[in-house]
Amino acid sequence: EKLEEEEEEKEDEEDKEEEEEVEKEEEPPKAELTDEEKKMSFVKRDIKDLTPVVMSAAFAKFTLPTKDEGFDDIKYEWAKGAKCDEYLKKWILERKLSMRIEDLQPSTWFNQQWAKWQMAVKAWQSKLAEYKTVVAKKAAAKAAKEAKKAAAAKKAAEKKEGDEKEEKKEDTEAMEVEEEEKEEEEESIDFEALDVFGVDDILNVGAETPIFKEFLMEDWAMLSLRFELHILTHAFRKDVDDPERLGIHLDHLAFYYNRYFKKTLSPKDYGVESFKEIVDLVNDSVYVTPKSVLESQLDGEMETFAVFPKLTEEARRYRGLRLALGEESAQLKLSGAALQGNRQNAPQKQWGNNQGGGNWQQKQQQGGGNWQPVGYQQGGYKQQGYGKSQQGKDGGKGGQSYRPYGWGGNKGGKASGKGGWTDKWY
Fold it and tell me: How many CB atoms sit inside 10 A of residue 373's CB?
């Protein structure tokens, strides 16, 4: 038995020796790193140490330890002190652009501007309803006069022989009707030949006609979108009060839009696929920078908001021209949510006057008239400036000409600086 045990032990030892020799002969596998992994000093983990909310509120305060804080010695394992400090600053700047501020709340300035806008839109829609009522009354009065004139002519044609006095009386009545029409001939205006940006009073561009007389529901919706994206860019910068935050990144546009306006912003409501395409719809007011940050073409402080109806009217005319040329892509494809001013899944809370200022969808009527390309000169549109500006100065945030909607080959955007309309807005 002892001999058998000794033999088994020898066999086991021989097996172990063989296994060890095989392991020594086999080369261990080598880890292969990608170029990105070779540049990394830290391993990225799926589970983070901090939640997004805590990280968003705290990362801007991150600093490196210093001896002034009581440390006897500070050692840097991957990079020296200066490079480490540069890395941290770059890391913070990148996250200021890419991370949203979870606890950001609209300021008093924004709420005041939003309230003023709602009041302005309500006044414009009231003016439009008043204008259409007057037009309808005048049309009815004109029809009545034409009927009266026709009746007088009919009587004159049915003159009785020998009744010369009656004939004279009827002729006199017909002449009085014609004279009355000449006396009451109303002021008229060639609206299609109107220079939109040369208008001083948008409520009366001539003959008591408002500049938005041809606006349909889709035009009011685009008017609101212009202002909302414009004021959002300025409100964000004021509320954040951090020059290192360039603005709202497109990835966070929906978040901040909901935070400020209490409603959702969806590309599908505007018939497009991305937020960049939403901005392109109103690129005469806002645009996207190369860093995918939303930027406004207009100044944040304005005496009035009249520039927005002007831009919307100009866009309506240009869109009409494109449609007349057979460009089906120029057709707006707004959903009912966008037309009503309340985006899908909007919360129950409303911001004042039905989110957009007035019950315009009940007042607005179908129409639009024939479109003719107007308001431009040889070489493009004649532009001035917008924002808080004075004659003889570079208005607003720039001052050079801006050609909206790609007139002359470009699609919106700035010609130089941030342009500005210098005409009066009242």
Answer: 12
| Dihedral sign (CA 362, 363, 364, 367) | positive
Tens of each residue's pLDDT in the chain, 426 residues: 566 677 777 777 777 777 766 555 566 677 788 888 877 777 777 888 888 778 877 878 888 888 888 888 888 777 777 888 888 888 888 888 888 898 899 999 999 999 999 999 999 999 999 999 999 999 999 899 888 888 888 777 776 555 555 555 555 555 554 555 554 556 788 999 999 999 999 999 998 999 999 999 999 999 999 999 999 999 999 999 998 888 999 999 999 999 999 999 999 999 999 999 999 999 999 999 999 999 999 999 999 999 999 999 999 999 999 999 999 999 999 999 999 864 333 333 333 333 333 333 333 333 333 333 333 333 333 333 344 333 333 334 433 333 344 443 333 333 333 333 333 333
Closest CA to 229 of 269, 196, 197, 256: 256
The residues near 416 (Cβ < 8 Å, ≥ 6 apart) are 398, 399, 400, 401
How far is the C-alpha of 104 from the C-alpha of 422, rounded, in Å? 34
In this structure, are residues 342 and 109 in contact, taking their beta carbons and an 8 Å threshold? no
- Lay out the sheet containing 248-249: strands in order across: 248-249, 293-296, 286-288
Q: Which of 270, 258, 273, 317 is nearest to 105 (CA)?
A: 258
Six-digit token string for 96: 């200021």
The phi and psi torsions of 287 (rounded to 5 degrees) equal -155, 170
The Cα–Cα gap between 381 and 364 comes to: 29
Tokens 């109806």 appear where?
309
- Residue 347 burial (C-beta neighbours within 10 Å; 0-12, 13-18, 19+): exposed
Q: Is beta strand 376-377 parallel, antiparallel or unpaired with respect to 248-249?
A: unpaired
CB–CB of 302/271 below 8 Å?
Answer: no
pTM over 0.90: no
Helix, strand, coil in percent for the chain, rounding step 5: 50, 5, 45
Take residue 425 and report the two structure tokens written for it: 């807005």
What does the H/E/C string look like for 152-208? HHHHHHCCCCCCHHHHHHHHHHHHHHHHHHHHCCCCCCCHHHCCHHHCCCCCCCCCC
Helices (H), 26-163: 35-39, 52-58, 81-98, 108-157
Query: What's the half-sphere exposure (Cβ side, CA atoms, 13 Å) at 321?
Result: 15
For residues 197 and 310, the answer to whether their CB atoms sit within 8 Å is yes
Reduced to 3 states (helix: H, G, I; strand: E, B; else coil), residue 11 is helix
